[in-house]
């Protein structure tokens, strides 16, 4: 185990000027230099402050396009008219009617089917939270090939667009948060941020800025690109066929109940839990880290979205693998990543030092000094 302090002198001039150009935020720079790494090479859960290799910092910053862009300005004049995508409206309506019906079928379901539904919920949610979000969108830790395959399969079960598209939308959400270029701009209201953005054509700025986002790291990931090229088949099998056939084949559940409960109801619940991060966690809760932005700390959303509700923290420090100041508290996704580190399947988890968090709280927080 080696625990040495990070040092600015480790950077040569070129790397330092690149760093300074990319991040005009002294605090963020300080935070990155104080990043602690929790990896498979460490013993147990010991968090080590280690000297970060300069090339590692350069690579991370070049390919990370999720930091708020203060230079973007919305275009003046009236907003473009809303154009509904009727196919999505009808499909979402059918899904939610089916899920509601599935809810009333719960008493008719076998115990094994209900347990299986919960497992499917967790499995598919992890494909979004630990996979598309913390690994691929923010590169907040590194995952081995088997873990990336596992996360891509579970991501297909969640059926929230393929990983590539999810990452593009999410980096845009952070970089242009709550502007016209944010795919689910919460300033357009709860319904729009929750589901409405999927039911209509995107704002032209979302398309324009989305095309310019740096996604080279994602394009270089064979697992992501394989999932993208086989996406329709993978969602058909993982999101619909498998959750319906497994209860029927292994413990004799009726196909009817299996289709409505572990398939449709579970799918709709994971969707809504994820959407609540975009809607409720941008509106309800306190802002201990940055009161100048709308994302908030919301423990209820964190519970439903297995750890993704600490949203004021997350928008302030998007590169923290725990997406929260409080590690594993209400945060099954962080527990999962820590377990993967212990098993040697994940490494290099980035987190923020307590001093940096406290300094930020004092400077821009709302004074609530608590989370949730
Ligand atoms: Zn957000
Ligand atoms: Zn994020």
TrEMBL record:
Localization annotation: Endoplasmic reticulum membrane
Entry cofactors: Fe(2+)
Annotated transmembrane regions: 89-108, 114-136, 235-251, 257-277
GO-annotated molecular function: iron ion binding; palmitoyl-CoA 9-desaturase activity; stearoyl-CoA 9-desaturase activity
Listed GO CC annotations: endoplasmic reticulum membrane
Catalysed reactions listed for this entry: octadecanoyl-CoA + 2 Fe(II)-[cytochrome b5] + O2 + 2 H(+) = (9Z)-octadecenoyl-CoA + 2 Fe(III)-[cytochrome b5] + 2 H2O
Membrane topology: Multi-pass membrane protein
Chief subcellular location: endoplasmic reticulum
One Pfam family it belongs to: FA_desaturase
Swiss-Prot/TrEMBL GO biological process terms: monounsaturated fatty acid biosynthetic process; response to fatty acid; unsaturated fatty acid biosynthetic process
EC number, UniProt record: 1.14.19.1
Family: Belongs to the fatty acid desaturase type 1 family.
Domain notes: The histidine box domains are involved in binding the catalytic metal ions.
Record's protein name: stearoyl-CoA 9-desaturase
Annotated source species: Leptobrachium leishanense
Gene: SCD
